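Exam revision sheet. Question 4 asks you to relate a sequence to its structure. Input first:
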Amino acid sequence: MKTNQFIVGLTLSALLGGGVAVGSYKLLEDDKTQSAQEQPEQTTVRYTSDMRSSTSIVPEGLNFVKAAQVSTPAVVHVMTEYSVRSSDQYGSSPMDPFLREFFGDGFGERAPRGPQMGSGSGVIIASNGYIVTNNHVIDRADKIEVVLDDKRKFEATLVGTDPTTDLALLKINADKLPAVRYGNSDDLQVGEWVLAVGNPMNLTSTVTAGIVSAKGRNINILRTNATKDLSVESFIQTDAAVNPGNSGGALVNLNGDLVGINTAIASQTGTFAGYSFAVPSSIVSKVIDDLLKYGEVQRALLGATIQEIDASFAKDKGITTLNGVYIAGVEEKSGAKEAGLQAGDIITAINGVAVNKSSQLLEQVARYRPGDKVKVSYLRNNKEKSANVVLKNLENSTSIAKRSVAKAVTFDGATFEPVNKQEMNKLGIDGGAKITGVRGSKFRETGMKDGFIITRIDKYAVNEPADVEKHLKNFDSGVVYIEGIYPDGLKAYYPIGKQ
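Answer key, structure tokens:
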């Protein structure tokens, strides 16, 4: 009996235990199923129109908002118009059109008709309408227009240019304009953040950021026949994106101060490829100040031929240092000669500022005028020396060249008027005298027409109207040849007889 009861109890226990196990498994299975069913479906990526304010804090020194807000209103769009001149189509000889038609080989080609357009950027530096841009932006332009950041448009007059630094100064008839402040480009350091502001690709008010990659760069972009090796290239190199249309725009620091004028890019395609170059503000401020005060730039020269020092040159010359700029020669009557500098000396600093490249030396000297005195530190036979050099101009003089205000004169029945700066820039001349009233004068026999600009009489240059009377009065008899150019660019030569 006991045995049977024990077996029955054991059986019941087994059944109960199995039921509990199965029930527990079922409950767990139901829980898992329920949990899986409660999980949300996977969401898809969608566009949203929600507007959310940024609450992140940008570390000081990395926020470009202030600089952009300060500089953008003062950067303008410069639009230029160029007419196709007769000299562009046919050359200087009136026989050229016929030669082109009969002989071909390029003679029959015609330049595009109608005005050609160009554009760039500019920077307002004074609230009364003075604007800095690049010389190459407005060079030879017939018409210059400026569009402000607020979309107002003005026709600009050309105050002056300096091809040796690729700078130009414009003026518009407006007041109370936003203007940028000059910053000190000497204080810029390699690795410092800068912004390029301009109108690239006809996109107005565009701001790009980058760092200063290098200073004192010479890329030989300004050395042309016009500059006669007097160009000053000591560019600030940056990696801020600069494209066609940025030329003449502002390079600013994080305070929004002007530290350079964007001028060129290093590219094989014509578009931005990593590096851009700007004229430093130390040069810009001096050049613009000269144009405002004197009408032309006052170039101060050391009076020495210089050469950079590299390892090969140092070995050939037996030089023990690679720092500084080597003096290859000294001009007679120059400031360098009078201060005792000699060929073989190595200039190491100008007014305490180290110069290790020719571009750095030229930049330091370019900020002074003839008559200014600078301290030149140099090495001679490995010994440190210094000299005070009085800088001079191209004529080895300390005088300041100031463009005189030319006046109209009347001579032999015709009126001769001065040529304005914009027309001189358009035609590529340095001066001249524009004739009017030809029909009622003795000049009518030459075939000359009103508007002709006389630039030379025989071997003498004509810079202003008074030169016409002065040079023609010197000829008592014979034939005198008058050379000049018409406003459309056609050059001409006219003989005039003197009895």
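Marking note for examiners. Residues 2-38 form the longest helix (37 residues).
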